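Good morning,

Attaching, inline, the backbone tokens for the sequence recovery test we're adding to the shared suite. The designed sequence is right after.
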């Protein structure tokens, strides 16, 4: 049997996430996960986003900096599938490539981390909050305009080291990554997704393949339909709002029984203006979930007008 080559970024978090998916794929193929490296070996690909650590992604080209080199390798046939953090992926798919499986989602919330304070509300005026996300910046400034936002790039370990070195008083990171890396003990509290929507797709992983390779049995076994429906709604909003690292946009969907609830918001970079929509959908399917996200995103885009795009933050 030919090996299934899986492409991934080389950060500790990416390798942890991809290793989990790798074992799930091998099990779904009917093999012992202990044989994962033989059946589905990992190919590490360094992306432009990994190389740039000194500025916001907006200043260097946006989200595709985390995916382009991996997708190019997939199109060339150097790898057979790719594993991404879904929130790093632009809303519109690349011609010739498709998302073939969305595994079950981890915690979608943002986590508040600090050696000094338990919550954002506890921070004094002028305290330094670290983040490289324009969305997180805008959301926190909407409730705490007196905070000093510090641009913070780098992998999880690097950011935690910067916190320990007192470069900031607190930071926000995705709870999912901390959980996957066994670092959840650093989490002091969580940002409520009903008040501040997380990034579209946050906590979810995406398995991508060449469109011609769709339909393998392992893809069906790995796929988690409730997660897929939720992120379809969120990514519909992402597409409508043309959201990228240039925009402060959040979208969070959850499913309770047969009801999908979607919360979409966009903010000015300073957090002073927020545009929000909330709606529920009964008996969602892939198309209706995506269309709901598209519609709410379009409504916000029309209401916000040119104020939506915030170049540079």
């Amino acid at each position: 049997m030919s090996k299934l080559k899986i492409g991934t970024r080389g950060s500790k978090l990416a390798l942890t996430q991809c290793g989990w998916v790798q074992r799930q794929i091998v099990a779904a193929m009917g093999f012992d996960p202990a044989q994962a490296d033989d059946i589905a070996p990992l190919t590490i690909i360094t992306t432009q986003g990994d190389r740039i650590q000194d500025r916001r992604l907006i200043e260097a080209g946006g989200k595709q900096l985390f995916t382009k080199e991996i997708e190019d390798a997939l199109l060339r046939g150097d790898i057979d599938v790719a594993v991404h953090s879904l929130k790093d992926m632009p809303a519109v798919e690349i011609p010739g490539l498709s998302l073939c499986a969305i595994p079950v989602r981890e915690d979608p919330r943002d986590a508040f981390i600090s050696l000094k304070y338990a919550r954002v509300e506890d921070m004094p005026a002028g305290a330094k909050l670290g983040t490289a996300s324009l969305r997180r910046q805008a959301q926190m400034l909407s409730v705490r305009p007196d905070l000093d936002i510090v641009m913070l790039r780098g992998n999880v370990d690097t950011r935690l080291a910067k916190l320990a070195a007192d470069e900031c008083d607190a930071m926000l990171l995705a709870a999912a990554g901390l959980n996957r890396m066994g670092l959840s003990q650093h989490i002091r509290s969580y940002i409520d997704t009903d008040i501040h929507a997380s990034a579209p797709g946050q906590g979810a992983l995406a398995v991508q393949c060449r469109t011609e390779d769709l339909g393998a049995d392992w893809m069906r076994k790995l796929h988690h339909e409730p997660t897929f429906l939720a992120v379809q709604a969120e990514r519909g909003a992402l597409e409508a709002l043309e959201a990228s690292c240039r925009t402060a946009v959040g979208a969070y969907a959850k499913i309770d029984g047969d009801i999908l609830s979607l919360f979409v918001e966009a903010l000015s970079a300073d957090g002073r203006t927020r545009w929000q929509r909330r709606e529920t959908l009964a008996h969602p399917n892939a198309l209706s979930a995506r269309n709901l996200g598209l519609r709410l995103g379009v409504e916000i885009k029309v209401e916000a007008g040119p104020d939506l795009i915030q170049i540079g933050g």
